[in-house]
Structure formats: C-alpha cells, structure tokens
C-alpha cells in the first residue's frame, strides 16, 4: 500500500493519471509460445541472410519488415525512421497505438540489430520479440489506455546506440517533452538467466518509480530480482540524456553468475549469464524459455500500469 501510494505520487506527476491497482489486476499473461515463434522467424531471417541481422546487412531490413508487417496488421501506426551510420542506411521502427493522450506518451523499446558475428537471438531478438508480442496483445485486447503507447525497435545499437540516438536527436524539444517514460528491453532470454532491473541510481535519469514497478512485476510472479547498473550500455541512454525517466530489465550477458545468484535463480554458478553473447551461437538454442516468459510478462505488467490500461 505504501509502495502503491508512492508510485501514484511519482507517476501521477510524470505519466498523467495512472491507476496501478486496477492496471495490475488487468495485466495480461504474454503467451511465451508466440514470443518463441517471433524468435524462430528472426532466426530464419538471419539464416537466409548470411547468418546475421546486422546494421547495413539485408537481415536487418528483413527483420524490420517482419516486425512492421505484424504491427500494421494489428492496427498500429508505424513509421520507419531512417538514419545514416558507418556509410550505410539505418532504420528504426516506430509504432504507436493510436489511442490515449498524445501529450502523455509512454515509450518501450529495444534494439533489433544483431552483431555481424551471429543471428542475435538473445541479443536482442529476445527483447524485440517480447515487445512485439506485448504490442500484439494490446491490439488483441483492443485497449483504450489513458496515455499514449509508442514502441521503438532500434537499429545500429551494436555500433554504439546509433539508431536510438538518431531518433531522440530527430525530435523537437516539444516532442521530447511529451515522452514521460522510456523502458528498455535488451536481452531477456539469457540461457543462464538473471532477473535484473535497471537501478534508478545506476544511470542518469533513472526512474525510481519505474524501478519499483518492474520489481513489483517480478514479485507478482514470485521471482526475486537484483538491481544492476547498466549505465550507458543500451538504448535507454539517449532518452536519459534528454531527461526522460528511464528503466528496464535484463537477463544478463557476459558476466558470470555467482553462487548466491544460482541459489536464488537456479542455473549454473561460475558460468556467464549468456555464454554466446555476441557469438555465432546466439541462436534459438541460446534462449531460456522461462526467462523469456517472465521478462515478457513483466514488460506487459509495466506497460499496462504506465499507460493506465
Ligand atoms: N547493450 C547490450 C548489447 O547489445 O551488447 C548488452 C547489455 C544490455 C549490457 C543491457 C548491459 C545491459
Ligand atoms: Ca507468459
Ligand atoms: Zn543488445
């Protein structure tokens, strides 16, 4: 009750009027089988395009076209934001659910590009697929939220957060001003998974309200969490620099799981959360379905609350 009250206070000031108690009751269970089907499609795209989905390569554009066609069919207003990076054209996909207050926009996003060494199924097909299935669930439920929901699938993250940075730089001050929150999902299906929530104090513009909300999402599923300082390692950084409150979740990359973490979460201590991080073996075999499911459900939990579903 104290938590809910404090969240109302903070979010009430920043994200319009939200009613977390109702939203929590209504938060959907994202079907992990659908998220896995999206990952299978991203894997197929990589395999058909030289084994990757990297910036400037055909597998990237095919990935974007796949996600866009799903969103278009579901009633989203989609737009491709083009930029130039490393001598190649880059693309962000922006998708807005065209209901709710356009002056109170909640954004969720993750990068859609892979490194050139592999298909990037955990990094970051996983976040991309979890976001996609959450977006499709919004459409299936025909939500009419209080606030406006906008998704971003970013290009050229692996080259230095280039797509998300180009997007934020393309906005006017007024357009930046209506974005009240940005939540980021970069790697959510790690094979030896962690359940990390971005620490509000671990980066500029970190939001305590979003950190609390994401923690409650995991707690509602009985999953213990830890805070992690992601700093500027993913696409929330551009939003943070613009003063937009940010947060996110993360199932871990190259760092090894400790004994205490293995006790808490299962898995193998002394082994990286993702042994295939940035490698050719980051395929559909490199996904823990339980992690993918839990993090995807938490995406929905947080968004339903933030938009006042
Ligand atoms: N930014 C990620 C990558 O694409 O390599 C890794 C990462 C994600 C690191 C989230 C920290 C937090
Ligand atoms: Ca689920
Ligand atoms: Zn990544």
Automatic annotation (TrEMBL):
<keyword id="KW-0479">Metal-binding</keyword>
<dbReference type="InterPro" id="IPR041756">
    <property type="entry name" value="M28_SGAP-like"/>
</dbReference>
<keyword id="KW-0862">Zinc</keyword>
<protein>
    <submittedName>
        <fullName>Leupeptin-inactivating enzyme 1</fullName>
    </submittedName>
</protein>
<dbReference type="InterPro" id="IPR045175">
    <property type="entry name" value="M28_fam"/>
</dbReference>
<feature type="domain" description="Peptidase M28">
    <location>
        <begin position="92"/>
        <end position="302"/>
    </location>
</feature>
<dbReference type="InterPro" id="IPR007484">
    <property type="entry name" value="Peptidase_M28"/>
</dbReference>
<keyword id="KW-0378">Hydrolase</keyword>
<keyword id="KW-0732">Signal</keyword>
<dbReference type="Pfam" id="PF04389">
    <property type="entry name" value="Peptidase_M28"/>
</dbReference>
<feature type="signal peptide">
    <location>
        <begin position="1"/>
        <end position="23"/>
    </location>
</feature>
<comment type="similarity">
    <text>Belongs to the peptidase M28 family. M28A subfamily.</text>
</comment>
<keyword id="KW-0645">Protease</keyword>
């Amino acid at each position: 009750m104290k938590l809910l009250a404090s969240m109302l206070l903070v979010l009430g000031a920043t994200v319009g009027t939200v009613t977390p108690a109702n939203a929590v009751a209504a938060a959907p269970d994202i079907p992990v089988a659908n998220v896995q089907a999206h990952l299978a499609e991203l894997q197929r795209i990589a395999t058909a395009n030289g084994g990757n989905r990297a910036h400037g390569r055909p597998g990237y554009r095919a990935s974007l076209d796949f996600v866009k066609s799903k969103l278009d069919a579901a009633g989203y207003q989609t737009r491709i934001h083009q930029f130039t990076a490393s001598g190649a054209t880059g693309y962000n996909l922006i998708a807005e659910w065209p209901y709710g207050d356009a002056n109170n926009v909640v954004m969720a996003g993750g990068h859609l590009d892979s490194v050139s060494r592999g298909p990037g199924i955990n990094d970051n097909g996983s976040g991309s697929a979890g976001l996609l299935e959450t977006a499709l669930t919004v459409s299936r439920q025909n939500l009419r939220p209080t606030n406006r929901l906008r998704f971003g699938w970013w290009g050229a993250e692996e080259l230095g957060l280039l797509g998300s940075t180009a997007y934020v730089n393309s906005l006017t001050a007024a357009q930046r001003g209506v974005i009240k929150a940005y939540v980021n999902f970069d790697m959510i299906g790690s094979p030896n998974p962690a359940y990390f929530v971005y620490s509000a104090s671990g980066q500029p513009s970190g939001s305590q309200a979003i950190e609390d909300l994401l923690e409650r999402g995991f707690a509602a599923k009985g999953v213990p969490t830890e805070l992690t300082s992601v700093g500027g390692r993913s696409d929330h950084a551009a939003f943070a620099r613009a003063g937009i409150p940010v947060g996110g979740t993360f199932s871990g990359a190259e760092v090894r799981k400790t004994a205490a973490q293995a006790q808490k979460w299962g898995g193998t201590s002394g082994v990286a959360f993702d042994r295939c991080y940035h490698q050719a073996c980051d395929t559909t075999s490199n996904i823990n379905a339980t992690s993918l499911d839990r993090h995807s459900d938490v995406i929905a939990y947080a968004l339903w609350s933030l938009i006042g579903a």
